[in-house]
From TrEMBL:
It comes from the Bacteria. Gene3D superfamilies: 3.40.630.30. This is GNAT family N-acetyltransferase. CDD domains: NAT_SF (cd04301). Residues 163-299 form the N-acetyltransferase domain. It holds the Pfam family Acetyltransf_1.
Amino acid sequence: MTDTVIRALDASDAHLFDSMPDPLDARKAHRLTRHRPEWKRVALRDGVVVARGAWWGGPDDTEPLNVNWFDVAEGEEEAGAELLRTAPWQVELELNPPADWRTDPARRAATQACFAAARAAGYDLLVERFLYRWTPECGLPERPGRLEFRPEPDDGVFFDALRRIHSVTLDAHALLDIEEGGLDRAAQAELDFFHWCPSPREWWQVARTPRGDLAGIHIPAHNPSGPCVGFIGVLPEHRGHGYGYDLLAECTHFLVERGAEFVSAATDRGNHPMAANFAKAGYPVVRERINFRPAATDR
């Protein structure tokens, strides 16, 4: 077998990225995603692309936030691993296979090849997630009317709520932030993401009970690919009442009332209460997301 050649792309040869087969329908998944040519890399053998990766960040980011398109040809797991190992950016890897990847033999094989390449490159599995996409055909979820929603201009209110929400959380990314930097870090990471989104700060809302008690928060947002559920969180002392559904329903209505023709969302597979809320609200699972992180501790 000839040696692998790792090649960074630019605008002149970005077409090489599209020369591989697409068994996981990544092109369809990323039809609204803008990938910069200079953040794309391929592995070639005898001039043929056998692995590819597209790193991604927002329009104002100077470095990629993650690699969210990664493919490996059959039997080329080591080429894929080399592609990841030699990249100048050691950031989180997102694999986004279709929802049926576990039962479709071809898609299962393609996904597992990516898993093997990631692990060979030193990446560790962090979490498996459900990806949702609401469209008008799903029908608007009913608003229960149990909570009162209003904007809140004070970031401190959200920071305190996030600390309390994450004190009892099932979210793997939040748990990682807590492990590495405590509740303050986890809360600040969420706030930083909310501010990073190109949607108005005025959209952030708190939810209160009729007695005026703060029950939770929801963040309707736009990320660079469109409208999304930025965050849903119920304070620990108000859990057990199904308020997560109320927040999700309100978030959906809020975005639709501002012109959203679809709403994207995600939750960890292990977060069974939130997954149940998405099902109740009529959000179908369209893909899964498997997050890997570089094993190095100095990233």
